[in-house]
Amino acid sequence: MNIKPFVKWAGGKSQILPDIRKKYPQQLGSSITKYCEPFVGGGAVLFDIILNNDIEEILINDVNKELINSYIQIKFNLDILLMELFKIQNCYWNMSAEKRKEFYYEKRERFNFLKINGDKDVNIEKAVLFIFLNKTCFNGLFRVNKNGLFNVPVGSYKKPVICDSDNLTDISRLLKKVDIRCGDYKNTIDFIDEKTFVYIDPPYRPLSATASFTAYTEMSFNDVEQSALKKFADDIDRKGAKFIVSNSDPKNNDETDNFFDDLYKSYYIERVTAKRMINCNGESRGDISELLISNY
Q: 272 forms bridges with which residues in the sheet?
């Protein structure tokens, strides 16, 4: 079964998944029977873990309400979600470029309205719009401004797959055994014990002052937050659980920047090669180094 994330996500892990997989603890599926992901994002590691390991309990979490709402709708309301996605895909495919643009901005406005004012009665609609916008916006980027409003312009895809029914059906099946939460990552600590493997994929530390692609919620994740996350990793370590933390490598831009090397000096730090996939300037995409930090 080949399952891929249902959204394109800044910092998605599909491309470095082989490197992460090599670092899974050897006890995974035997004495380690629980898995936790406090920042689930697109879920590439989650799906790989479920498909290839015998895990009894799984908890995923993210602070992004619209993302988590989409996971919940895929898990519990797949049929109606697929029906609505197919309708919006069929409508979009049959429009001229000018009509598509107009349609996109109408849907973006509606999504932002629901994001601020929505309730449980519109969760399906919000999930449909979330997936639609992700598949049709510029570079597949989810980004919000300081007011929490989605502000990415329309993309120029010829025939974007908005309703990937086979993949969404497979994801829905996998999610049946997954507990889904929305909130601060620290709230997952009650789930974690010595039988748990935790993969931590926070908003990355920007490589430059102009890199803003980690802004997938209206809340910032600055160096103070990165330092707080390290204390969370310490708490996990004290519980006897195994963890991996991924993040950007500051040395891509500044060889003297030892922020993470100093912060996680008591743990194991590995550098792996990745491609910068989301960038408004195509020439700025290329190989970069990312960090995989573990306590084993």
A: 290
Q: 């670092």: which residue's tokens?
A: 23
Exposed/middle/buried for residue 146 (C-beta within 10 Å: 0-12, 13-18, 19+)? exposed
Q: Are 43 and 5 in contact (CB under 8 A)?
A: yes
Q: Which residues pair with 37 in a beta bridge?
A: 60
- Other Cβ atoms closer than 10 A to 101: 14
Q: At 147, which amino acid appears?
A: N
Going by C-alpha positions, the residue among 56, 11, 9, 41 that lies closest to residue 185 is 41
Query: Contact, 250 vs 207, CB < 8 A?
Result: yes
Q: d(Cα 241, Cα 282) in Å, to the nearest integer? A: 40
pLDDT per residue over 135-169, tens digit each?
Answer: 999 988 888 888 889 999 999 999 999 999 999 99
Contacts of 21 (CB under 8 A, 6+ apart): 48
CB 276 within 8 A of CB 285: yes
- The values of phi and psi at residue 181, to 5°, are -125, 155
Q: 110: which 2 tokens?
A: 């509606």
Give φ, ψ of 142 to 5 degrees. -100, 115
Judge whether 60 and 71 are in contact, CB under 8 Å. yes
Q: Return the closest-CA partner of residue 12 out of 33, 41, 51, 53.
A: 41
Helix (H) or strand (E) holding 268, with range, is strand 268-275
65 and 182 Cβ atoms separated by less than 8 Å? yes
213-231 per-position pLDDT tens digit:
445 565 678 999 999 999 9
Token pair of 44 as six digits: 């590439």
Please enumerate in sequence order all residues whose Cβ is within 8 A of that of 254, keeping only pairs 6 or more positions apart, or say none. none
Q: Which of 61, 53, 18 is nearest to 32 (CA)?
A: 53
Give strand pairing partners of 59.
Answer: 36, 179
